[in-house]
Amino acid sequence: MNGIPRSGPAPEDVAVIGLGCLYPGAPDVGTFWRNIVSKASAITDPPP
């Protein structure tokens, strides 16, 4: 693209096979989404 030849190995395909996350006020993404749709508040005090 910029006229500079690449050095090193060619790029390889990458697959994302898992995802981890903490959802505020919910144990899983389904509950988190229901909380968003129902406009539930997930604001709490931070842990100590």
Task: Write up what this structure looks like.
The protein has 48 residues and is mostly helical. Helix content is 19%, strand content 0%. The model has no long low-confidence stretch (mean pLDDT 84).
Task: Summarize the structure in short.
The protein has 48 residues and is mainly α.
The count of DSSP E runs of length 2 or more, i.e. the number of strands, is: 0
Question: What is the C-alpha radius of gyration, as a whole number of Å?
Answer: 21 Å
Amino-to-carboxy terminus distance: 51 Å
The computed structural class is mainly alpha
What best-fitting shape do the alpha-carbon axes yield? elongated
Order of helices and strands: H
Number of helices: 1
| Low confidence ranges | none
Give a short account of the largest sheet: none
Overall helicity: 10-25%
Tell me the strand percentage band: under 5%
Mean pLDDT level: 84
Secondary-structure map with pairings?
Blueprint: H1 29-37
Characteristics of this structure?
single chain, 48 residues, mainly alpha, 0% strand, elongated
